[in-house]
Write a structure and sequence with these properties.
Number of domains of chain A: 2
Oligomer: heterodimer
Number of helices of chain B: 14
Radius of gyration of chain B: 26 Å
Largest sheet of chain A: none
Distance between the termini of chain B: 41 Å
CATH superfamily of the largest domain in chain A: MetI-like
CATH architecture of the largest domain in chain B: Orthogonal Bundle
Shape of chain B: globular
Order of helices and strands of chain A: HHHHHHHHHHHHHHH
Number of strands of chain A: 0
Largest sheet of chain B: none
Strand content of chain A: under 5%
Chain lengths: 294, 323
């Protein structure tokens, strides 16, 4: 039946489907895309150029495309500068991003699974409560959350940087939607084998949800690494700065040299560039998933 | 980490109790226990770090709470903080700044991300390459982008990229961020956010474009529709409706929370200070006026909620059948 239909399908002219078009239209499209791609890459080029130049080269009159001899000594200079807690802030960011990712994943997947699959009488009411908190825009709660965290004594502390960010209603919502679509037959089989909800979740559901979990994990990691407002509010002492807060401080203080500033920026984006290069499939999938559910 | 475990729910017993082979049809109690074991920790955290703070903040907003989170009863000021914030010229200005920002960034991001998605959908080779390039800025934090925009592209001196390019055309140097009169600082702020977020929304549009059934375009051809503009307005755009509504909402909500680039590019300057930056300096600056800060945060939350609901109503959330 479907074979017949395809055989008699109208042959469409150029321009109707993605990937088609007249030759000149396609060429024009490609040219525009290439120009835009170059524009989009300029900031990365500038970071790299300035990171490997000397201050004199950066501020010299006339445009410099690239320093004639890259100043590799900028790297040890940056990490040895006592005024700049670069290594410490990178370590803080790594701890915060990894802990946030692991914690969010643990809490939100279990919550999402419970909401989706356990036939508790009031499950729907609980779900609506979670939905209601989604209406509260995250950044607006920084004043009240600061009040809470400071009364717990978690200012300038990993606990304050990490724990309040773990209970992400949006991620829990996404997990619930995903687990609603998880094939019930697999869980039934686990049931027959004598596994309870807990066993079915860890032995059947989690191992079969690798792609989804990876997508959520990558998105959470990127968000946690790039977060600025919350770490700024909580990180009052330099020891607890994440790399974003440290960068912002150098930027506004303007006491460090330009080349050091850009080298610091380069170091700060390096981990995520690797994430983008190697895990982009999950990231794209995660982004598509998050948006389509909206 | 131990703090995140809920004091009320009992997650352990639900898990281990369920494991016995004979519990194929668990009783009511067992189901409840299992449910709270799964959902309890998350819910407890949500209560402690979202619900309680919001309520506490609402409480603080009725007090003269400077430098304290537990004001004394005699510091009660009723709606004084709200009246204060609503008549505060700086707070009003911050709302205007936000409105201008939203009016610029929402349509521009929408058009650019949709345009990129359409162009990528047409391209036959190197599609993955282009997608990666446009998506890559999303790896950059607003702090890093602000650094590049402020210190290298739009630094207002001769060696900056923007002024170097203008120089080629014999145009005078522009001060960009350092000129408190619009429009130049808007160009800097808006282009920064466009650069970071366009690729993100482009991915959403690409996913949606790939879901449009091909037979619609075939039918349009049979009916004599012209490819290009006609099919775009009558097929592509209506089919993207659900995604478009979601994307518009996401852009607007993100714009409300603009903070990172403003504080790093401009700092605490009255001419371009969005609400969050103002609230940050009110509540956590030298004054630590948590009462007024809380009142301002709640006013802002209310405005966001109303606008979100209105926008949802106006754009007809879920009006489209089958979506």
């Amino acid at each position: 039946m479907s074979a017949m239909a395809t055989a008699t399908r109208v042959k469409r002219p150029a321009g109707y489907r993605p990937g088609a078009g007249t030759k000149s239209a396609r060429a024009a499209n490609l040219v525009v895309l290439s120009v835009l791609a170059v524009l989009f890459l300029i900031p990365f080029y500038l970071i790299l150029r300035n990171a490997l130049a000397t201050d004199a080269e950066i501020t010299a009159p006339g445009w410099m495309w690239f320093p004639s001899s890259p100043s590799w000594e900028n790297i040890p200079n940056l990490f040895n500068d006592p005024a700049v807690p670069m290594a410490r802030s990178l370590l803080n960011s790594a701890v915060v991003a990894v802990a946030t990712t692991v914690g969010t994943l643990l809490l939100c997947t279990t919550a999402g699974y419970g909401l989706a699959r356990i036939p508790y009488r009031h499950a729907n009411k609980v779900f609506y409560l979670v939905l209601a908190t989604l209406m509260i825009p995250g950044a607006v709660t920084f004043v009240p959350s600061f009040v809470m965290v400071s009364s717990l004594g978690w200012i300038s502390d990993f606990r304050g940087l990490i724990i309040p960010t773990l209970f992400n209603g949006f991620v829990a919502f996404l997990c619930r939607q995903y687990f609603l679509g998880f094939p019930r037959e697999l869980e039934e089989a686990a049931r027959v084998d004598g596994l309870g909800y807990w066993g079915a979740f860890w032995r059947i559901v989690v191992p079969n949800s690798g792609n989804f979990l990876a997508a959520i994990a990558v998105i959470t990691f990127v968000g946690a690494w790039n977060a600025f407002l919350w770490p700024l509010v909580i990180g009052r002492s330099p020891d607890s700065w994440t790399v974003q807060v440290a960068l912002s401080t150098f930027l506004t203080a303007q006491t460090v040299s330009l080349s050091q500033l850009f080298l610091a920026a380069c170091v700060a984006i390096l981990p995520l560039v690797f994430v983008f290069l190697f895990l982009q499939r999950f990231l794209v999938q995660g982004v598509a998933q998050t948006g389509l559910k909206g | 980490m131990a703090v995140s475990a809920p004091p009320a729910a009992d997650p352990g017993s639900a898990g281990t109790g369920d494991r016995r082979p004979r519990s194929r049809r668990p009783g009511r109690l067992r189901t409840s226990l299992a449910f709270w074991g799964f959902v309890g920790p998350f819910l407890a955290g949500l209560a402690v770090f979202t619900l309680v703070p919001v309520l506490w903040s609402a409480y603080l907003s009725f007090f003269d709470a400077t430098n304290t989170v537990t004001p004394l009863p005699e510091d009660f000021v009723g709606f004084g903080n709200y009246a204060d914030m609503l008549t505060d010229r700086a707070f009003q200005d911050s709302l205007i700044t936000f409105s201008v920002f939203a009016a610029l960034i929402v349509p521009l991001t929408f058009a650019c991300s949709l345009g990129l998605a359409l162009m990528l959908n047409k391209v036959r080779f190197m599609r993955a390459f282009f997608r990666s390039v446009f998506f890559l800025p999303f790896a950059c934090s607003y702090v890093v982008a602000s650094l590049v925009w402020k210190m290298s592209i739009f630094n207002g001196v001769r060696y900056g990229l923007a002024n170097s390019v203008l120089d080629l055309f014999g145009v005078e140097d522009v001060a960009w961020l350092f000129n408190p009169d619009p429009p130049w600082y808007w160009l800097v702020i808006v282009s920064l956010r466009l650069w970071i977020q366009c690729g993100f929304y482009m991915i959403l549009f690409i996913a949606a474009l790939q879901q449009i059934p091909e037979h619609l375009y075939e039918a349009a051809y049979v009916d004599g529709a012209k490819p290009g503009r006609q099919t775009f307005w009558h097929i592509t755009l209506p089919q993207l409706r659900a995604t478009s509504v979601a994307v518009l909402m996401l852009i607007l909500i993100a714009a409300y929370q603009a903070f990172d680039e403003f504080i790093n590019l401009i700092g605490n300057q009255a001419y371009a200070r969005p609400p969050l930056v103002y609230l940050y300096y009110t509540a956590l600056g030298t004054q630590q006026d948590l009462g007024r800060g809380s009142a301002g945060a709640l006013i802002l939350a209310l405005i966001i909620a109303i606008v979100t609901l209105l926008q949802g109503r106006f754009l007809g959330f879920g009006n489209k059948e089958g979506r």
